[in-house]
Design goal:
Layout lengths: L1 H8 L4 E7 L5 H9 L3 E9 L2 E2 L12 E8 L5
Antiparallel strand pairs: 1-4, 2-3, 2-4
Length: 75
Amino acid sequence: MDTAEQIVSETGDTVYLEVGLHNGYGAAQRMYVKRGYIPDGQGVLYKGEVCLPYHPCRNDDDLTLRFSKQLKQGR
């Protein structure tokens, strides 16, 4: 993650990522939060589309949440 963030900092100031929501992604979810990533506020996505309230979806690899992290200036 340090290397990816360093590469992004050379051309931008924000890193974006998506992570699955089932428990198989638990370690990744925790790591991203500990590294300062926050949800983007759009809610859950299914197959890349925002899941509207009460819309059916499956808790599989396509159910995700987007996160972003603002990188520090002068990195």
